[in-house]
Design a protein that fits this description.
Chain lengths: 295, 232
């Protein structure tokens, strides 16, 4: 079975079918882009993968483990949490915590988790395997020293922020950053638990056009043999260059999937052809507008 | 009657006012938080029940509620018995509170009344936290408890500072109502002098309120500044 497998996922809101028999898979190290017009179910799909919505039916496997099989309501909060830890999500609207510095935004979750993990060690409710993975990611063989937890977590947080080009901003609060910088901070936060699946929901849609480049560059640099990435995006050039696989969704269904080559150079369905020519036209319009702008 | 004796008497009354103010806050703040969680409950009967309670408490004059709290327990226990009166002598403060039972009844009525007002402020503050931040916490594997205390609650404090300061300043002045059931707070201790044809102590008592409200205003301004390091 592939590293990431989604099988026959269905999801309705009332009588409205938002996802219809969605299946696709990806190998470790691969990047899958999801494209499709607004309302086609892309966000809903990511929300199901991240346990923010419960599917009506369908299965999700990651790294040989069953993440869900059918609705997730019967999972306990603890189970849901443990499963979530191997998945990261970057939101369209960043959703940074405004009352914490950028560094604290990144370190909060790992710190809580590592402290919890130490507390649970050897107790009746011993740690799920994933906890050890995260402790290992932070302490890398060095024994966990209670007194050094803060220091090590902060060092790692600063490292992650350096990775996204925010080393000079670690003590700044979200409102003091540009949209592009906020999104890069949110990306650093999402990788702080070293997820093996990283999802992005239109990470640049809320940004001014001149700020999308810096964010897309950071995302591209995150491509790694240790994880799979799913990127919902309207940036076709980006999807073309970063993806190993592109999935086209329309009205809750996967209409076409294939290599970037197949999807962008040789679309089979009329739906995809129309979508591509519509986005091309829109991008053209935007270029014109950008050129007309007086600055 | 000298200025000094009046001042001394008013200070004693103001002590009762302050004690009533502090006790009301101590009980109503946590109780308000609890009620706010009930009015946001997913369980419809609980939610509706507490919303109705809040509606009643906010819709009926506080003075009436004082009377209800003061007289109702006696009426339903034994006809004619004075429930709070029996507590009058069971404890005694050095703050010049003679009617201990009335004072207790006032604390109960005020705490519950203000808890209901605060609960609405808390609810507004909690519901105002963008759902996206809660989801960000969930995706990061945080427990509901951690999300509440590390994300929601931390920001609620800043969001509710302005409405809370209004409500708390109103409470300072509402304490004057306590005299209708016999609590000798500052206005009552000033009023007593009218029997000796002295009116000015009543006006003088206003200065105590002004001073205290001024101090509270400074405190809230300071807190607001303290929380200005981030924007919601
Ligand atoms: N919580 C919800 N309740 C009802 N309908 C929803 C909800 N979330 C999404 N939808 C509907 O599902 C469809 C897909 O939405 P979404 O997944 O956000 O699409 P996309 O991200 O591709 O734009 C839309 O028609 C939307 O109105
Ligand atoms: Mg969307």
């Amino acid at each position: 079975m592939a590293f990431f497998t989604l099988r026959n996922v269905n999801k309705s809101f009332g009588s409205f079918k938002a996802l219809n028999d969605v299946s696709f898979s990806a190998e470790k190290g691969e990047v899958v882009s999801i494209i499709g017009s607004s309302g086609s179910g892309k966000t809903t799909l990511l929300r199901c993968i991240n346990f923010l919505e419960s599917v009506d039916s369908g299965e999700f496997f990651l790294d040989g483990e069953t993440m869900f099989s059918g609705p997730i309501d019967k999972l306990t909060e603890d189970e849901k949490r443990a499963k979530r830890l191997s998945i990261g999500l970057v939101f369209q609207s960043f959703n940074l915590f405004p009352h914490y510095s950028i560094l604290r935004n990144v370190t909060l979750a790992p710190e809580l988790l590592i402290r919890e993990s130490l507390k649970r060690k050897g107790k009746k409710k011993d740690n799920p395997k994933i906890y050890d993975g995260i402790v290992e990611y932070y302490f890398q063989g060095v024994g966990v020293d209670e007194k050094k937890i803060n220091e090590i977590i902060q060092k790692k947080g600063a490292e992650l922020l350096t990775k996204v080009g925010l080393e000079s901003k670690i003590n700044v609060y979200p409102h003091q950053l540009s949209g592009g910088q906020q999104q890069r901070a949110a990306i650093a936060r999402a990788i702080a638990l070293n997820p093996s699946l990283l999802c992005f929901d239109e990470p640049t849609s809320a940004l001014d056009p001149e700020l999308t480049g810096e964010v897309l560059r950071v995302i591209k640099a995150l491509k790694s043999k240790d994880r799979a990435m799913i990127i919902v995006t309207h940036e076709m050039e980006f999807a073309k260059s970063v993806s190993d696989k592109v999935v086209f969704m329309s009205q809750g269904e996967i209409v076409e999937a294939g290599t970037p080559q197949e999807i962008f150079e040789d679309p089979k369905t009329t739906a995809l052809k129309n979508f591509l020519s519509a986005t091309k036209k829109k991008e053209g319009d935007e270029d014109v507008r950008r050129e007309e702008r007086p600055d | 009657m000298t200025f000094m004796t009046v001042t001394q008497s008013l200070l004693q009354g103001f002590g009762v006012t302050l004690l009533l103010f502090v006790l009301t806050l101590i009980f109503s703040l946590p109780l308000g938080l609890l009620i706010s969680t009930f009015t946001m409950s997913k369980c419809t009967p609980i939610r509706v029940f507490f919303k109705v309670i809040v509606w009643i408490v906010r819709g009926v004059p506080l003075m009436l509620q004082l009377f209800i709290v003061y007289y109702l327990p006696g009426m339903i226990s034994k006809a004619g018995s004075n429930f709070w009166g029996t507590l009058d002598n069971s404890f005694y403060f050095d703050y010049g509170i003679k009617n201990g039972g009335s004072f207790l009844a006032t604390v109960v009525a005020f705490a519950f009344n203000y808890a209901c007002y605060f609960s609405e402020i808390f609810r507004g503050g909690i519901e105002g936290i963008p759902q996206g931040q809660i989801e960000a916490g969930q995706v990061l594997g945080m427990t509901n408890r951690q999300i509440f205390f590390k994300i929601t609650f931390m920001q609620v404090v800043k969001r509710i500072l302005a409405p809370m300061s209004n409500e708390i300043i109103t409470l300072v002045k509402d304490t004057a109502l306590a005299r209708v059931i016999g609590v000798v707070e500052i206005v009552m201790s000033a009023y007593i002098f009218t029997s000796k044809a002295l009116i000015w102590p009543l006006f003088y008592s206003g200065a105590f309120y002004l001073l205290f409200v001024g101090l509270l205003t400074l405190l809230f301004n300071y807190l607001e500044k303290k929380f200005s390091y981030y924007r919601v």
